[in-house]
């Protein structure tokens, strides 16, 4: 098993009988999920995706990635939310958070269209100067404001640099199979197009073309990623809590929520996991946080944040629990040397790896935080590889779906995201929003 639920540190907080008590509910909801009879059942394509994904498109993704590796120095990935978080997370975890600065034979990758900040976009534009550039515009709806604005800017850049015809060969559009503004534009302009499947929502889309093209461009083995997800799909197909660690994780967080824990902090001891934290926050936050319910998904990277948030976690208001993703093996070990004169007093660590020290920090922290009344779930992952990460992604997907059904919400929609958009469009004067504009401006005192 690639991801194991370690409930050892939860024992003071959750009795074995509490898991048993929820087994009948899990069995019923597993049936609802697998038979597609629950809320949001139009978005269950991810359940079998690691097995049934479109092989022809997968081959096209690999071919496009090879072409991009050859003709591109800077690859611009435009998307927001589910249209970029997964790919950025996987690239940073499996390659490096310093990916762009490393010596490599793959292009630099910059993620834009995930904010509306001109400084950010201008800086990325300047990083493209004198470089061969290609662009992947990713939007399921094809109308999201942030990526649409960024695409306007980068399309102009490519067309100026390469001409309309040349730009055409450097723009890759990942969008709906048949409908939407971006699909129409891609067809008219002749961009190579990839599909966001109808039955897969943004936050469940990292293993579709949405995530796979940028991930493949970075040089990650996407076959292994899919094989890991397939292994998870098979291993996690049972409703039996003693066999399904993804469901066990969902049940543990549900029990803790029922006991008044309102915040879940996803913790890693690897800074390369920081964007995975962000991906996970979107997955659980957008899926569960509705109808006045849901755990607030927070995150931390230790030991870094032990010197900031650590104080609060140890002694602040007792509203949170932690879920630690603990990797067994480091990607590249580093050993601490010995000094002739033990001037810094660290010779007791000579010959030990940094990961040995990191692991003692993990053990010491889990014990300290549980002593401080912060329950700790530990998810054990043997190592950082494409296979394990594919497994972990599916593990969280499935836990998230069950979690949503356990709290009685639709885990596959995001109606709340529209509120800010409507206000923003009205304030910007988008045609059709005239009435709202006047009302909002009055509230703003204009
Ligand atoms: O999970 C989701 O559905 C959202 O985060 C979307 O991915 C995000 O809003 C971007 O939407 P789109 O891909 O339509 O531009």
From TrEMBL:
It catalyses: alpha-D-glucose 6-phosphate = beta-D-fructose 6-phosphate. It is an enzyme of class 5 (isomerase). GO terms for biological process: gluconeogenesis; glucose 6-phosphate metabolic process; glycolytic process. GO terms for molecular function: carbohydrate derivative binding; glucose-6-phosphate isomerase activity; monosaccharide binding. Its main location: cytoplasm. Keywords: Cytoplasm, Gluconeogenesis, Glycolysis, Isomerase. The keyword Isomerase applies. It comes from the Bacteria. Pathway: Carbohydrate biosynthesis; gluconeogenesis; Carbohydrate degradation; glycolysis; D-glyceraldehyde 3-phosphate and glycerone phosphate from D-glucose: step 2/4. PROSITE patterns: P_GLUCOSE_ISOMERASE_1, P_GLUCOSE_ISOMERASE_2, P_GLUCOSE_ISOMERASE_3. InterPro entries: G6P_Isomerase, Phosphoglucose_isomerase_CS, SIS_dom_sf, SIS_PGI_1, SIS_PGI_2. It is found in: Cytoplasm. Belongs to the GPI family. PANTHER family: GLUCOSE-6-PHOSPHATE ISOMERASE (PTHR11469:SF1). Catalyzes the reversible isomerization of glucose-6-phosphate to fructose-6-phosphate. NCBIfam families: PRK14097.1. This is Glucose-6-phosphate isomerase. It comes from Ethanoligenens harbinense (strain DSM 18485 / JCM 12961 / CGMCC 1.5033 / YUAN-3).
